[in-house]
Each structure stands twice: as structure tokens, then as C-alpha cells.
């Protein structure tokens, strides 16, 4: 399952002020299916398809991450760079 890991993506959680770090294809897919803020645009479906394809072994984790990033940005939940905490 390590091949489905990817560099951290910082997103805003479903509750005000909540921050989440997503760092794998399964975690990104779970977030999209369970906590995504509704139907947010066409990039949402592209990301869902890419994440599912990565789990099936047809798309790289990095490509799925990129699709997830674009969808999170489109949905307005990608944490702005200036708000991200430095690694401990």
C-alpha cells in the first residue's frame, strides 16, 4: 500500500478552522466520498476517477494527487500556502 502514498496535501476540513493532511490515495478517496463539500465542479469527478484508477493500478499516485489538488482548489478547500504549518 506504500505505493499509494504521496506528499502531504493540506486541506481545510468540513468544520470551520479544521485542517487536515491527506497523504495517500485511499485517504484522499475517503475524504472525497465522506467529507467533500458537495458537487463542486468538473474537477471533482476527474479526481474521483483518478483516485479510483490509482487504487486499481492504472494511474500513478502522483497523478491522482495532482487531480485531487485541482479538485480541492476548485472546491475552495485547498489550504493557502501561507496558512500551512511547518513540519515539526
Number of strands: 2
Structural class: alpha+beta
Shape annotation? globular
Question: What is the straight-line distance between the termini?
Answer: 25 Å
Instruction: Bin the strand percentage.
Output: 15-25%
Q: Which quaternary structure do these chains form?
A: single chain
Mean pLDDT: 89
* Regions with little confidence, pLDDT below 50 for 5+ residues: none
The major β-sheet equals: 2 strands, antiparallel
Radius of gyration: 12 Å
What do you see in this structure?
A hairpin with a 6-residue loop joins strand 1 (5-12) and strand 2. 27% of the residues are buried. The protein is built from 3 helices and 2 strands. The mean pLDDT is 89. With 88 residues, the chain is an alpha+beta fold. Helix 1 (25-34) packs across helix 2 (42-56). The chain has a two-stranded antiparallel ribbon with strand order 1-2.
SSE diagram, text form:
Elements lengths: L4 E8 L6 E6 H10 L7 H15 L4 H15 L13
Antiparallel strand pairs: 1-2
In short:
The protein is of the alpha+beta class. The protein has three helices and two strands; from the N terminus they run E-E-H-H-H.
Notable characteristics:
about 90 residues, alpha+beta, 3 helices, 2 strands, about 45% helix
Amino acid at each position: 500500500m506504500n505505493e499509494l502514498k504521496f506528499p502531504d496535501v493540506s486541506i481545510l476540513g468540513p468544520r470551520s478552522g479544521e485542517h487536515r493532511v491527506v497523504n495517500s490515495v485511499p485517504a484522499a478517496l475517503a475524504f472525497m466520498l465522506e467529507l467533500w463539500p458537495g458537487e463542486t465542479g468538473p474537477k471533482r469527478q476527474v479526481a474521483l476517477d483518478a483516485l479510483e484508477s490509482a487504487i486499481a493500478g492504472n494511474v500513478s499516485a502522483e497523478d491522482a494527487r495532482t487531480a485531487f489538488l485541482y479538485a480541492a482548489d476548485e472546491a475552495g478547500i485547498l489550504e493557502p500556502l501561507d496558512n500551512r504549518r511547518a513540519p515539526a
